Amino acid sequence: MNKIKCFLSLLFTVGLIVSCAPTTPEKKGIREMIPEDAVGVISVDVPSLIKKSKMVDSTGVIKIPDALNKVIEDGDPSIIADVISNLPNSGVNLDDTCYLFFSSGILKTVALLPLTDEKKASAFVAKIASGKMKPLADVNIATHLDYAYAIDNNVLLIAHCSKDVKPEEAAKAAADIFRGKKPSLLSKKVVAQVVDTKGSDVNIYLNARGIDSLLNGDSTLNSFLLSRPIFNFIAETDVKAVTASVIFDIENKDGELAKIKTHLIFDDKGQYSKIYDKVIASKTSNASSTLDLIPGELANYVGLKIKGSELSHLPQMKKIYQSLEANPLSKGLKSEEIIKNVDGALVFGADEGQVGDNVVVALQSSQPQQITDQIVELAENRGQSPLERDDEIFYEYKNQGIAMGETDNAFYLRCVDFETQYSAIELPVLPQNLDKCSIVVFKMLSIGNNVEGFFNWGQTDKANGEGFYFSEDEKCNIVISVLKLLCWKDPNSNIIDDDFDA
Q1: Rounded to whole angstroms, how far apart are CA atoms 314 and 310?
Q2: Structural contact between residues 62 and 16, judged by C-beta atoms closer than 8 angstroms
Q3: Helix-helix angle 46-53:478-487, to 10 degrees
Q4: In order along the chain (502 residues), what is the average pLDDT of each group of 10 residues?
Q5: What is the domain partition of the chain in residue ranges?
Q6: Phi, psi for 444 (deg, rounded to 5)
């Protein structure tokens, strides 16, 4: 999640900056600075975003809501918090669309911002970077931690860098971007059509390498899904790119929300298309019933409907089997046989626990007893006899209780360090999505110990998906809710932002 927060933080920072300076003539050149080897790009309709945030008064003065200020003050300092605090004198103006792009080079995540006043912008950077800008490689640049700030010809570049990059190297990379050394990614028609689409607040394009990196960006989910989400086999096929659009709907009768639509670009006769048609069982009876077998207190859920007999032997599954074998909890399991048993919904849940990661799994199967028998056999080989109670089997693993059981057509296992109070079937929208979609994602987003909102997404057909984020607080402006999440950095967290390696 840290990679995602990194570039989304820059995205919303860019959006807020627009209201802090007078309007200038239409910008030129920034669009063409995005290099063709970028793995992805985001465009932002700044005027729409600012209007919907309701943070700017009639005179153009920005007012940071108290709730957002509190989040900034309570968390560790972050770049977006620093930028927001210094917005009034930033010297930056964006009159229409602004862009962010992601690369596998020295500068991982880059925001390009037109300037109205280079002197103000330089002073603005000096505050954020804790030092004045210096001329290097024909650009003015300052570096601080893993960030670089460069100014050239009335454009400010803010970049998240690879670790241990020298200022000279960052300056050279920034100069290459300013000069347009490489052809523009947006010279490709398919990319331009996506990022220049009107009517959306945010448009996103990620090519196949960007998809792969993004899918591996959530450390909590990956600790359970063993470094790669199980549906990463899609990214390892012939899928070329994913596009997405976001619209902040502040007129919604049921409360404000952010609508998300996604689209996969692939060969209709290629590998992904064949796998989806043959393996993904989009029509599964009573798929949501599996949610009633697992707790609803976790932050992350991933569900998909599969024909295990077809999926189990695919080449893309070998890495998952290897990862399962390398994990102490699942070492020795006949993973391929378990996958073969799945016929319908397969749901994972994960969260950070006090002892270790809380994890749960539930799956539909015509032979759930075979899965139970295999796990019992594995436990006995490790010297643990099953403790049976109320039709459940219990074990202990690293001070966590493991419970598993079955119904006529489903198996479940939960390894959690808390007493469950309700089932996942009571979570908002997730059950409906699981019944109608082939792949679903649910994420509960928190600030400290308080739930801020919920993200729901589902793959509705082979190419398209849709979802939304909504705030737990119905009175909270949806843009402000997202900004609060992006500004929050847990002072007790030891997680360091990863590089965006493609």
Answers
A1: 7
A2: yes
A3: 100
A4: 41 38 47 92 86 81 83 80 71 72 90 86 90 92 93 91 90 95 91 89 89 54 43 73 94 86 93 90 87 95 92 85 82 90 93 83 94 91 87 85 92 91 95 94 91 94 95 89 86 54 46
A5: 1-266+463-502, 268-444
A6: -90, 120
